[in-house]
Amino acid sequence: MRIGDVKPRVGFFIISDINLETLNEYSLDIAKRITGRLKDNGVEVFSSGKVIKSQRDAVSEALKLAGSDLDSYILYFPTWFEGPVPVSIVRELEGLPAILWGFNMWENEKGEKNTTGSVVGELVLKGTLERMGYKFLFVSGVPEEKDKLEGALDYIKAARAKKLLRRTRFGQLGYTGIGMYPGTFDHVFMRRFIGPEVVPVPECEFDDYFRSIKDSEVSGLLENMKTEFNLEKVQHQEKLMPTLKIYAALKKVIEKYELDGINVRCHYDFSKRLRCTCCVPISLLSDEKIVTGCEGDIITSISMFIFYLLSDDVVAYGDIMD
């Protein structure tokens, strides 16, 4: 499975007060609607399975979900609650992005305003966590409110991207080229603060792959190109064979090093030595959702990979010209 195919994984905790024996149907229905809307939008929801009312239960339930490889979690408040209960979950799941979700007063069937104290407790907790230095998303409302649901989904997708960046292996074939200072980067800084491991790929190893590929291995690719792309204006189409061999060799490198993307220093390495640029090969890889870049510009490539994780779609780049 490619790293970008992993669905967002969210924990869901219901927090209430120890002095409340039952919860009303309205507040519990909101919980079902929140998780239902999340699932409808491709989110895997892992519920603690019980209403949490004490610190001991909070720790226990947090530990149960700690092994679920969560991207983030939601603390849902159907009623007033005591702050130490959700804080215990926050402390156990240290480092995971959190969403605080409560709701305001609502109108019952008699036209009367009702409240369970949900948002009051949520606001108390908000101030507490801010003072403790935690960052989180504050949501007060119901999932049918478009801005509330979309805000939560955006936050969840960003949390997923943040986690998956730590597991990303991005190849670098050749170093930064043609004096491009903006493309240089600090490897340790990249690993610590952004996430990906940048994997240096030996150029001699790529050359061995390239030279070992026979025309017969890529002839089928050339026929596919003729059907997928308009090559009518391309003279001497057989000269595309080296281009396709570069593509096939890059695929071998990606497979061996288990890469999620690759950057190639094309000029002058490929353009002079092999007399063939990498524009077409890396474009073909991009169509397969393998994020690619050129000239050793890892900064741009990792930025593209972040967009890929957020969009689950092909990401392209190019020069903007008047």
Q: What are the key terms here?
A:
alpha/beta, 322 residues, elongated, 11 strands
Please describe what this structure looks like.
With 322 residues, this protein is an alpha/beta fold. It is built from 12 helices and 11 strands. It has helices at 25-40, 55-66, 84-92, 118-131, 146-165, 187-194, 203-212, 215-228, 241-257, 269-274, 279-287, 298-311, and strands at residues 9-15, 44-52, 72-76, 98-102, 106-107, 113-114, 136-140, 169-173, 197-201, 261-264, 291-294. The strands form 3 sheets. A 5-stranded parallel beta sheet has the order 2-1-3-4-7, sandwiched between helices. Helix 7 packs across helix 9, helix 8 packs across helix 9 (241-257) and helix 9 (241-257) packs across helix 11. The two termini are 41 Å apart.
Topology:
Layout: E1 9-15, H1 25-40, E2 44-52, H2 55-66, E3 72-76, H3 84-92, E4 98-102, E5 106-107, E6 113-114, H4 118-131, E7 136-140, H5 146-165, E8 169-173, H6 187-194, E9 197-201, H7 203-212, H8 215-228, H9 241-257, E10 261-264, H10 269-274, H11 279-287, E11 291-294, H12 298-311
